[in-house]
């Protein structure tokens, strides 16, 4: 089989685009890779196939660990930068240390940190089997590689349908704890069943609907107890992180935490959200990074399972109005971390938790006790 012909044919297999990063000694390494995939869920494992001629492959072998940075659909130039030979591939790229201390691309769609447990040589490449130690993801669409070029999935229509379905749920067009039949949603949105089903699966991931064995998809109610338990759990995790991490947090980590705070704060002007979904993503990204400062994958994974974004979406998303007090409290939390002042950081975290619970109570009261 001619190599050029083989590459042409295999190029018809669309794949996601990632940047594999690692460090060895005092140097950072990175390369664009599309031969990356999940291998196992229990235990969680990833597979990365790297060209042996690229320095990153040798660095992964030396360090015994690597990070998979999943790129979003607007990061084609970033993919090209890490695919081209350069003495400094990280130039102009925002980077922060991950749970394993690896350099993570801050604006990537998702991050997966792995420890190498096995290596397999195949032709010109080495396959690294990695045990996943930390995994985080944001919202957005992935960058894809197809026939030698970068592009995006054609999800625009499905996303638009999902957005309209989500507005129906948040506006309480369907009462809490009632069934949401696929055919009814499709008819209401004037779309086919496939598009409505996609919307329902996204709503399920958001926690706005849940699967019931007898009734199918059901509008998931939100009440005070659920809200209080979720925000109290987040507070408990963050107070634990502050106790573990504040003594050894670095200046670079403080700078990254401040950057994420500034991104979030810019999306709240006066008493209104400029972009609620953008604010929600930025808020989650900031608190997730705070939790990662403990360097404890179990804490990071616990935080991810709390469903914070679900509760905020279902409550704060009902109204565009909010309060600058939320940003101010989080600002005091971040300032406490920056100044290595545990009491100030703890007070900021507690204040933010109480404000969030009180705001949800107000929203629930104005909407009949649950939404």
TrEMBL record:
Stored SUPFAM superfamilies: FMN-binding split barrel, GntR ligand-binding domain-like, Winged helix' DNA-binding domain
Membrane-spanning residues: none
Pfam families linked to this entry: FCD, Flavin_Reduct
Residue ranges annotated for the HTH gntR-type domain, each copy included: 155-222
Keywords for the protein's UniProt record, in alphabetical order: DNA-binding, Oxidoreductase, Transcription, Transcription regulation
InterPro entries in UniProt: Flavin_Rdtase-like_dom, GntR_C, NADH-dep_flavin_reductase, Split_barrel_FMN-bd, TF_FadR/GntR_C, Tscrpt_reg_HTH_GntR, WH-like_DNA-bd_sf, WH_DNA-bd_sf
PANTHER family membership: FLAVIN REDUCTASE (PTHR30466), FLAVIN-DEPENDENT MONOOXYGENASE, REDUCTASE SUBUNIT HSAB (PTHR30466:SF11)
Family the entry assigns: Belongs to the non-flavoprotein flavin reductase family.
Protein's name according to its UniProt entry: Flavin reductase
